[in-house]
Structures are given as structure tokens and as C-alpha cells.
Amino acid sequence: MLIDSHVNLHAPQFDADRDAVIERAREAGVSLMVEISDRLATFEATHGLAMAHPDIWCTVGVHPHEARHYADLTSSRLIGLAGRPRVVGIGECGLDFHYDLSPRETQAQVFRAHVAAARQTGLPLVVHTREADDVMAAILREEMAEGPFRFLMHCYTSGPQLAELAAELGAWFSVSGIATFKAADDVRAVIRDMPADRIIVETDCPYLAPIPHRGRRNEPAYVGHVLDKLAEIRGWSREEAEARTTDAFFALFDRIPRPEGA
């Protein structure tokens, strides 16, 4: 079963042909997609996609780039939106110290509100982290001590030390098209050590198109290239990679009913 665990189909890059993109994904064998919320201002579009398509589910959250616009965000607001049908996760949220589009203190504050929402709802947290390993590690340790929550290190490209800590705390990891990039040896090295039963795949479309589509707009139809690369890195057959990532996906996103035979 092919699953794209992280799509941004509400993005303007898909305005001209969104329905065709979704249909191409189905034709490529993609059975499920998780449409990711990056800010509450576009949540209605995100949720609308999930409500309109039986093979699309969604999350609710605020990307760290947008945190400056949601400095007063509360966990109760996220929890309220998470109660809607077909919402299966909290996020994308976290820390991005590469672009610093929001103040770092605000990013951390908004991230903690998401953690609290994940803890209270039992929904998995979709975590974005870039060039913030030490601060992310500290927050994850502190918040896990406050009470358990499940989380996914989405599109993981950070260092091995944070990956090791996250794995010890029970994290899942998602692999993206970056794993196919020629210069991404460090990313592939971390992938080799990820917990075998907690790896899933994603496109993060319209970004990060895998080889052989690099440089173009990414689409869910390309997630098979990511799965093939994961299989190569881990020494799995395509069938084993598909089975393992499917099991891991449904263990994490357990609000999504697993189709019979999948």
C-alpha cells in the first residue's frame, strides 16, 4: 500500500490542476494521503480537501514560519479544531532556526501549545525541525516529562544525536525526496539507524521532488520514488518497505481506519 503521509495540496501551486494531481496520485497507486495544516488561516481549505475525498485525511496546526501570527495560540483552540471529522494529527509545528521567519521564543511557545494539544487529544504530533537540534531536544525532553505524547519527526534531515533522542522517546520518522538527492549522504546515514518499525514516507509536495523529478513541482504520485530509495538504503525489498511503512503509518495515525487487506 502506497501512502503519502505529508502533502500540501491546499498550496497555491496546485490551484490550476488540484483535481488532476489527486487523480494522478491514485493512478500511481497512492491509496491514502495526509493533507497538512500549516496555518489556521488556511485550515478550512485543508479540512475541505479531507472532507471532499475519501482517501485524504488532514491535520491542524501552525508551521514555525507562521508562529509570529499565532503568538497567542492556545492548546484549547487546536483541540477544538481537532475534534472535526477526518482530522488525524496535530501540526505541522516545531522550530525552524534556518530562516527564523518567526522569533525563536515565539516558535517555542507555539510549539509547546501543539504538544499540549497532542497530549490531550491523543493525536500524533507532526514535528518540523531545522537547525534547532539542541532546543528541540530540550523541549521534547521537558514535554515528555510532563506527560506522554506520540510524535513524528517529519522529513527528518537533522543530526544523529537528535534522531537518537527522538527514537528513545518513541518517535516515528518520515523520509522524503531529500533521501534521493546526490549530496544527502548524511541524511541517508541517519535513515539507516532509524527504528525499522517507525519509518514512513512522504513527498511534502509541492516541495522536495525526488530524483528523477528534482527541480519540478512535487506531487503525491512521486512518493513511490521515496519508498524505493528507502528500500535501497535499508536493504529491504520494495515489498518489505511497503509493508513496513504501511504498518508504521497505521500505528501512528490510528484514527484512520486500516482498509481490509492493507
Task: Please provide the count of β strands.
Answer: 8
Mean pLDDT: 98
What's the order of the H and E elements? EHEHEHEHEHEHEHEHH
The N- and C-terminal alpha carbons lie at a distance of 6 Å
Instruction: State the strand order across the main sheet.
Output: 1-2-3-4-5-6-7-8
Overall radius of gyration? 17 Å
User: Mind describing the biggest β-sheet?
Assistant: 8 strands, parallel
Tally of helical runs:
9
Beta-strand residue percentage: 15-25%
Helix fraction? 25-40%
Q: How would the global form be characterised?
A: globular
Uncertain parts: none
The helix-and-strand class reads: alpha/beta
Write the layout of secondary structure elements.
Elements: E1 2-7, H1 18-27, E2 30-35, H2 43-52, E3 56-60, H3 75-82, E4 87-96, H4 104-121, E5 125-130, H5 133-146, E6 151-153, H6 160-168, E7 172-175, H7 185-192, E8 199-201, H8 223-234, H9 238-252
Parallel strand pairs: 1-2, 2-3, 3-4, 4-5, 5-6, 6-7, 7-8
